[in-house]
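FAQ: What does the model actually see?

It sees only this:
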Amino acid sequence: MKNRDLALEMVRVTELAAINASFFVGRGDKEGGDKAAVDAMRHYLNTIDIDGTIVIGEGEKDKAPMLFNGEKVGTGNGLSVDIAVDPVEGTTLMANGQPNSIATIALATTGSMLDPGRSFYMDKIVVEKQAKNAIDLSQSPTKNLQEIAKALKRDIRSLTVFVLNRPRHQELIKEIRSLGVRILLHDHGDVSGAVAAALPDTAVDVLMGVGGTPEAIISAAALKSLDGGMQCQRAPQSSQEEKEILEEGSDLSEILTLDQLITSDNTFFAATGLTTSSFLRGVRFKGNQTVTTQSIVMRSKSGTIRYIDGIHNLDRKRTQVNFDVNG
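And it is asked to produce this:
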């Protein structure tokens, strides 16, 4: 399979995941929606001519029946790739019918994705291409925002920062607000926030704060295509996590660059809106058997970014995944 064809196949994976999970939007069932997306994603991945290994998945084998870390997917033919998936980023958002839930996948050459080990959280900063040389995670948020504003030729008060709404970010939020900088507080949506910060002409200029390590690696595949700026640092949220990271031999003071998160220059990223996000429309029903989707797909090798609007006939897709229109 040609690489440009693989990019479109990744969109088909996220489209099916989003559509299958869309029947659970607002129904309060996180597990049901996540399982629907996982089933669809795994089903389609196994029809693609790749020799794929899930590096970032739903969990270890004994905790997840499908798309577990280390699972082999694809036909076994074609490009050998590492795969990172988040079948539903923002399961709570999906269950509550709130914005910013997406289905997403990232691919890279085998052996190129960082093994997160026991590191579950990272401190992150993400910006678009124009400001990528202005960021330095070893500096304060104030210093970073000042330099980002200079790079973008903007008044610092016009910047908008995406921050996860967590108690751990109280001091960060206080510092950002003291500069007069605007904040978008989100309960979930680490990948959505990172991609929105790296894309020009969105409502987000910067992502800051501690989020998931798996989400950092998925985001890195998109940032490579966008030529954006991203730095991360392991940020254990418990003494046990810190102990296990140190036992693995990792350096907690190390600042990881984009090329350390994914060493390959051949990455793919695809996402489909489940509920409407900062940069994608959610799944919409147009009659009983028709839905529309909006997706984004990127490939770092070519630097191509495509938005794809899809119109799907559910009757015909039943041969691929069991959609249940009536719940």
